[in-house]
Amino acid sequence: MSVRDNIKAIEEKLPQGVSLVAVSKFHGPERILEAYSAGLRIFAESRPQEFAAKVPQLPADIEWHFIGHLQTNKLKLVLPYAKLIQSVDSFHLLEAIDSWAVANGRVVDVLLELHLGAEETKQGFSEEEIIRIVSETSSFPEMFPGIRIRGLMGMATNTDDMTVVEKDFERIEALFNRIRAFGLEGFDQLSIGMSADWPVAVRHGATMVRIGTDIFGPREY
User: Fewer CB within 10 Å, N side or C side of the chain?
Assistant: First the structure.
């Protein structure tokens, strides 16, 4: 099927209120324009140099998200263009984004990335670390005036066993709901679910799903 047909097939199943984020990494501007022409406006990249090179070649009304591990020395390639940093995975990165935002007169929207899967190499906060960060909501605006925490991002364990995936998404949904009870202003986004597991994610409260292969097919490069 074409990119347009792929998008239509996903959108027909996606509940109202759940945003479709097209993961366009490893795909050139021409393929992104196909998805744009089919109506998509939210795209996500994960490699800073690739991201910074693509943005000037594409329509200005695209809402760009960054979903990869972001090193602090690459902030200048990403923060001028990204509306949402989905993959904030350390306190050090929070501090660096805040410093850049304050220096540039910006407030940057972020998601805190939860380390869900069993893989030791995955980036992200533990549940306890996230609770500790957001439980200090009264002092957060003073600590990080350049940041607004919009929600959580997570990836399930890389497995074909959907019972494991379901349990992972149950955990992040429970954490998301627990944090919402703190009353953190603007905390309303849960980014879980990719091509292989997004229907499961939707059942567990996803407000956005990150889909690449099911839209664009195999990577181009």
Answer: C
- Tokens for 44, please give them: 């996500």
Rounded-to-10 torsion of CA 117, 50, 77, 147:
-30
Q: Is the dihedral of CA 65, 108, 140, 185 positive or negative?
A: negative
Is residue 109 a contact partner of residue 134, using CB atoms and an 8 Å limit? Answer: no
As a whole number, mean pLDDT of residues 63-69 equals: 97
For residues 151 and 188, the answer to whether their CB atoms sit within 8 Å is: yes
Interval 112-138: pLDDT, tens:
999 876 555 568 999 999 998 888 755
Listed in sequence order, the residues at least 6 apart from 54 whose beta carbon sits closer than 8 Å to its beta carbon are: 24, 29, 32, 45
Do the Cβ atoms of 188 and 175 come closer than 8 Å?
no
Residues 13 and 198: their CA atoms lie apart, in Å, by 10
| Six token digits for residue 154 | 């997570």
* Exposed/middle/buried for residue 164 (C-beta within 10 Å: 0-12, 13-18, 19+): middle
Which amino acid would we find at residue 26?
F
Burial group, residue 168, by CB count within 10 angstroms (0-12, 13-18, 19+): buried
**CB under 8 A, 24+ apart: contacts of 54-63:** 54/24, 54/29, 55/81, 57/29, 58/29, 58/32, 58/33, 62/36
Please, is 142 exposed, middle or buried when counting C-beta atoms within 10 Å of its C-beta (0-12, 13-18, 19+)? exposed
Task: Supply the pTM of this predicted model.
Answer: 0.94
